[in-house]
Each structure stands twice: as C-alpha cells, then as structure tokens.
Amino acid sequence: MAAAEPGAAPGGGGCAPASGGSVPVLFCFSVFARPSSVPHGAGYELLIQKFLSLYGDQIDMHRKFVVQLFAEEWSQYIDLPKGFLVNERCKVRLVPLQIQITTLGNLTPSSTIFFCCDMQERFRPAIKYFGDIISVGQRLLQGARLLGIPVIVTEQYPKGLGSTVQEIDLTGAKLVLPKTKFSMVLPEVEAALAEIPGVRSVVLFGVETHVCIQQTALELIGRGLEVHIVADATSSRSMMDRMFALERLARTGIIVTTSEAILLQLVADKEHPKFKEIQNLIKASAPESGLLSKV
C-alpha cells in the first residue's frame, strides 16, 4: 500500500483523554469499524501499521490511501493533520483514492537499495541451487558497488547458523545485521532507509523465498516501497514453497525479475559510464541451473 502523506488541516478528534500507556482508537475502513489501541503519542506510521494489521487482507495494495480523523468541532472527517500524535481517544479511517497506481517497476541507482537476506553457510546443504544463487548474489553485489547502490545484509541467528558464505564479498555494505525476526525490516534497517533520501525501490534476494524473503517483501510494500525479487538469486529448501511464494508475491504487486534484467535496467543506456563493466560482469557469471524453470 502506498499511503498518502498526511495533509495539513486544522482541528482535532477525540473524546475523553486517555490514561496509561495506550490510547483506544476506532479504526474504520470501508463498512468496517474495529476498536483497538495504540501507544500514547503514536503518529502516522503506527496508525498505518495498525490499519494493515486489522485490514491487510482487504486492502488493495495498488491503491493510494489517505488517513482521516473524525473532528468533533466539524462533526465530520478531516485529513490527518501534519504531526498528529494520538493522545486521546479518537476515530480514524483509511480512505482509498479513486486513482489506481500502476506499478511500473522503473529502477534508477539513485532511488534503489539492495537487500541480501541470510545467505549463510549452514543453509548450503539444504537450499536448492544454493551454489547458483550465491554466484548470482555475488554478481548483484558487485553491480551494486559499481553503481554506488547501498546494500543491506542480514544473517539469521548467525551464532547457530553461521555467517554469510565466504564467496559473497560484503565489502562496502551499508549494514550487516544479525536477526532472529524472519523479516529483514529491523529497527536499524528502518532507520537506514529513513537516512537515504529518495529511496523508492528495493531489490531483494536470498533465502528462504517463502519465509524471510516473503515476510520482508510484504513489510516493505506495506511501507510504500516498490519491491523487486530476483528469481535467480532466491531459493528455498522446497521448490513448491518457492513457487507458491513467488506466485503470491507477484499477485500483491511485487515484481519478480532476474539479475540480468535488474543490472541492465539500472544502467539503462549503452552510453552509461559503467555499462561495459556491468556487461562484463553479466558475461562472466551466468549459471544455467534450471532454477528459473521452477518459477
């Protein structure tokens, strides 16, 4: 879901002041209204997350939305004021705008970041075509370095599952983070995304497709980012799990693509100063494993 930025508006909403650490809020969407609560002082982002948790299976992720607040003084909903923080009981609603957004999938180096997910040593014997996705993942990271694209790397419980495989060179990675959460969207990752101006697209690859990749992708599109999953650099222990995850993600508007398509889209022109280096990178490492026949 790409939610609209909250607009400036006068007025407020709410009834009795709240006590304690949470505030009761009525969340309205379409014909539904569900009471819940948010932490005292919660703002726009937390309200969006709560709407997703309550109505995620009913929200069309290709639409833009605006969050509105019921204002007692006007006896109607108004656009959520800038800087709004929940400090008393209130009623909010999520309103879809009429114009549907088409996901074009355009990539530019200045608005793109790469996410490398859990390419660790202990997964080597279990993940199908692991050697091939290592090779393609390394190609993507080399391309990111050539084009100046930031890279975020995570490792799932490295104490037990080992570090990222030695074949993958993490030189220049913006972050290399341990995690126990399946999604890569950790607080440190959210902070890093906020620090990089203009990030619009995430190129995501690693393991496992139906677990960490899927949960990361869904969280990212929930924050309004466009996600490109690299099919020839993403795998699972089970090809059935991988296939159904990619199909599900494609239906939500996530772009399932290939490493060569990603790299050539990023240079975009034969006259790009890095085109020859990217071309040589593609020619030098193109495994024909049959993995893409399993998409």
From TrEMBL:
Where the record annotates domain Isochorismatase-like, the positions are: 112-260
InterPro entries noted in UniProt: Isochorismatase-like_dom (IPR000868), Isochorismatase-like_sf (IPR036380), Isochorismatase_domain (IPR050993)
One Pfam family matching this protein: Isochorismatase
> What family is this?
Belongs to the isochorismatase family.
Please report the name of this protein according to its UniProt entry: Isochorismatase domain-containing protein 1
Source organism of the structure: Sapayoa aenigma (broad-billed sapayoa)
List the taxonomic lineage. Eukaryota, Metazoa, Chordata, Craniata, Vertebrata
Give the gene symbol.
Isoc1
